[in-house]
Predict the structure.
Amino acid sequence: MASILIVDDEPEATATLAKFLETRGYKTETAANGSEALELVRAMQYDVVMMDLRMPGMDGADFLACVRLEQPQLPIVVMTGHTNLGGQDEVWARAGVKAVMLKPLNLREVSEMVYELLA
Amino acid sequence: MLAEERARKAQSRLFDAIESIPAGLVLFDEMGRLTLWNSRAPEYFPGASSRIVAGSTFENLMRGSAENGAVADIGDQAEEWIASQAAWFENLNERREMHFSDGRHVQLLGRGTSDGGTVCVMTDITDIRMGQEELAEKTTLLQATLEGMGEGLIVLDADLCAVLANTRLDRLAVFGGSQDLVGRPFREILESIGADIGQTTDAPGNVESDKSLSERLADGLPFQFEIARTGRQIMLVRADPLANGGWVCVFTDITAERRAVAALAESEDRYRRLIEASPDMIAVQAQGRISFVNIAGAHLLGAASADELVGRRVLDFVHPDDHEAVRGSKPVPGFHNDMEVHEFRGRRVDGSVFEGEATGIEFAYQGEPAVLVIIRDISDRKFAQAQLIQTSKLALLGEMAASMAHELNQPLNIIRMAADASLILMEEDKADIENHREEFDRISKQSERMADIINHMRVFSRQEDGSTGSFNPIECVDAAASMVREQYRLDGIEVRTVLPKVAPRISGQPIRLEQVVLNLLANARDAVFSQKEMLVDGAGDRSRIEGGLIEVSAFVANDQNDPESRERLEELVINVSDNGGGIPEEDLNQVFEPFFTTKRAGQGTGLGLAIGFSIISAMGGTISVANGARGAVFEIRLPVAEPAAATEPEIPQDSAADR
């Protein structure tokens, strides 16, 4: 069973997303910020990390910078409300980001994208 | 016998004649021996009557008087006087006068007789001399008066030529000498002064007429005129006719007076222009009524002219609601630097209302206590201020809009995911009721959260109607903190509130206080951020960055130990502090000045704190800043309008136990 780490400081958001991904047959874990997530990826193997960018404490960008060095192969999906962050696939690709999903999330797209990433 | 008889009769007649003259008479023979004298003679030789015997000499008689101290003014010069008298007796060339110690003046007249003898007649001229002395004394006094008087004086005879002039006239008009004027025609004297002769007026009085000087002199009535010597004196000449057809002319130097009058008029004119040119209303009020008002005042009050306002009640032009305040404001006794300015609502002639600002200064106007009032129309300024506040609010709003979008996006994201998840499960027929209930509940809660956010935005962007009432400031502060708490949390800054449970009420507009608190919060966040940037740039200790903290606290200040404070109104104190490192000491006293900013260009308007300052001042409060241990501490103090209803102890609402 593929495992997905969801990183967002909104507990309701992580809960909803986690619950849905579980109905798709994935194992999920959640973290509220970058440093919590970093601890988890260091301790366990995840197939995908889905993360928000703006979080208190260590934010998404800091997390990306650390993970890029430690686990360059870890697929990361960014979930963000900043519409102007889309369309810069190349930049994201270099940071190890496989996809950028704009909030509010369309769960069908999320579902397809995760499926493709794990295929 | 007949001849002898005739001779005796003749001698008898001679004696009678000698006796009848009102003078003393003595006759000396050719040898200088006294041979005859009349009965009055001894009166004229005081102290020497025993020497009036036949055969005595003139010198002997003189010696008798001198040695007996009967002669005045000779002192120890008796011998010389006697010699001089004797010498006179030898020559008899002139009349001689003797002054006796008893005050009498006696004139001596001597003549040689046909037989070589000498006859002397002595006449008492005391009365004449006394009269002369008195006259001389009076003359001296008159001269002293003429010379001593401040005026120049000239006396003209009937031909209008000078007969007398005092030296004062010289000094006034720079003549060669007053003596030179005597005999010169008046017209010529005036010409020599080089003066323009002004219009003549009846004296005393100010009735001017076209009569020339010559006509005036011909009229023979008192008159006066002014003469002005270009660049020199101005003199007033008063002319009074004399009985003999002459005139007495008195010249008074009125240069200083005329100059003072001219200077006063000039000064008055200058101030009048200044007052009339003033864009502010300047008025004088005495006993509650307008005694003077300038043109700007007429414009401000909507009157056609200033005259229309004079005499009207001052309170007629004050909004009824402000009558009490205007009556209560005391004018200051004089100009000084920090004049107190009172804002009030004024009422124009047509009843329309304007916002004004007034300063009053006590002074004396036409000898009565009065108040000089300066009033400025600040309606435009008030409007601009309101606009500026609104603009600043909009700027703050714009600044927050991006964060707000994020804020709204969070619940929206959850709602969409919940809906999507339910839909997908329904399509797959995997959904159960419990699942739907859970997701709908989620959607409902998140929608409510969004509504809260939106409501707040709506409240904040609303333009208040200007009415002021009392409100709960704690709610306001709490609302401001709640509004940004979530945003700031995402930025790694905790907003902590320590607020009293029971709130007093203060008067003003809640939105304005909220705006000020929001601005302080935004500044605190920026301070924390800029310190964070500094640490990152300088590769500083990152662990310090994560503990961004803004504390908002409020409490009612009322020191019960201070007896004075019970008299005073309570104050609500609101503190906003951060751990952003503080404000440089040199900037502390400038932060409330408009357009002062330490932020980078484009990041701050430099108006936030200035507007905050004006808002708090308008609410009758104060705002100040100091540096605490970790960062800036802003303190707002507001007068409490109604104390908290209950007196139960304040309970911290949040986790502030460690404070």
